[in-house]
Amino acid sequence: MGNIIKETQENKLIFMVLSIILTLIIGFLLTKIVDYLFRKLKKTNKIGFKFLNTLIKGLIVVFMVFKIGSNFKGFKELSGSILMSSSLIIAVLAFAFQKSLEDLIAGFMISLFRPFEVGDRITLINSDITGYVEDITLRHTIIRTFTNSRLIIPNAVMNRETLENSNMIELKSGGFLDVMITFESDIEKAKAIIVNLVQSHANVIDPKSPLGNDKKSDFVKVYINKLTLDGINLRTTIWTKDVDTNFDTLSELREEIVKEFRKNKIEIACNAHKIKGNVSVKN
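Structure tokens predicted for Small-conductance mechanosensitive channel:
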């Protein structure tokens, strides 16, 4: 009789171990299938699908935990107690995981209204953070900065932030190019040099053209933005296909303008009056 009981217990133990192993294998395969299906749909760069992918895999993990736990008598009793006092447990859990639930709900809101997508360049105005959206999970959003570091920002914070999205609607980007010349310099010649350099730059596009690269001969305008004690500030707007190209193009144009101004004897103004005012006399 004792041998039969012992054999039965051993069989139960073997069955439990096999059940746990099978559950782990099925859970692992399900997560891989979910990833494969999302890749097949080519929706992995969409913020809503990123969040849904993470959510489904999270539910699979929860199912695995309960399935494995059901093999243990203590877990069953605990589950029964939780169901009997579900209202109290839910209230306690809601209080204990208040922040996590807030991040989860915020993640739903972000995935639903999609203020940004994976790969978008965004600026968090309140936090003064700029970077590229790399991923979103149930709890947080990952931002890649220009120094190639990663910022892990809770979804609740992202949901409350005032965002500037450089990629929303269209990628085309405009940036001011300011050059200040002295009062003695030839204004018309300076403006002509700027117009010529801007119009001939390969990255500059015509904002009024549907294709952008269909440039007109007179699409660049240079204005006198302001007069200061230092000199005359000339301004034009540089349009490029996206914000990253705009940054590079502005830098290249500034360098070319400095070289051309030197050749044509056009002097770039500086705060000379401030320098003179700060000169100290030593005894």
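Strands lie at 121-124, 129-136, 140-144, 150-154, 163-165, 173-181, 223-227, 232-240.
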